[in-house]
Design a protein that fits this description.
The structure is a single chain. This protein is mostly helical. It is 67% helix and 8% strand. A 3-stranded antiparallel beta sheet has the order 1-2-3. A hairpin with a 4-residue loop joins strand 2 and strand 3. It is elongated, with a radius of gyration of 24 Å.
Length: 156
């Protein structure tokens, strides 16, 4: 009797997560393009860039340096999730490198003595800043690709 009860309990526990996953997938498939398609709003001088959802442009999350991760919003597609993870990994790193390089390039001629030191540290600062820009561009490209994969998998 105890063995049969233990077996039924174990079977119920094994079946229950699968049922929840099936319900979550069914909910995701009902979301059509007009309601769930994502797009990137580039922002302006007064508004930060954002990730928007649907025809009405509901703000999903704000984009930029030290903002929340975008990966949770790309659960529908494994490919979209992978590119969103790349964005989350690269964007802050690129922004910090770019800012640090700019600070070094600006402060080097002011703080350092000697022409050669100033030139070298200014060049290093410019190089770090440019590299940070390249990393940030790679992050932006990854986010754009994540949005494409997400939208591709939407079904009416």
């Amino acid at each position: 009797m105890k063995t049969a009860f233990a077996a039924m309990t174990a079977a119920a526990l094994l079946v229950q997560p699968g049922t929840a996953d099936a319900r979550a997938q069914a909910t995701q498939t009902r979301c059509g393009y007009d309601e769930c398609a994502l797009r990137i709003s580039p922002g302006s001088f007064t508004t930060p860039p954002a990730l928007l959802r649907g025809r009405d442009g509901a703000r999903v999350t704000q984009l930029g340096l030290f903002q929340e991760a975008v990966t949770p919003h790309f659960a529908r597609s494994d490919s979209a999730r992978a590119y969103a993870l790349e964005y989350d990994r690269l964007y802050d790193r690129g922004g910090v490198l770019s800012s640090a390089g700019t600070v070094i390039a600006v402060l080097a001629p002011i703080i350092l003595d000697g022409t050669m030191r100033r030139i070298v540290f200014t060049a290093v600062g410019v190089g770090v800043s440019v590299y940070g820009g390249v990393v940030t561009k790679r992050a932006d490209d990854a986010l754009s690709t994540a949005v494409w994969w997400h939208n591709r998998d939407l079904r009416e």
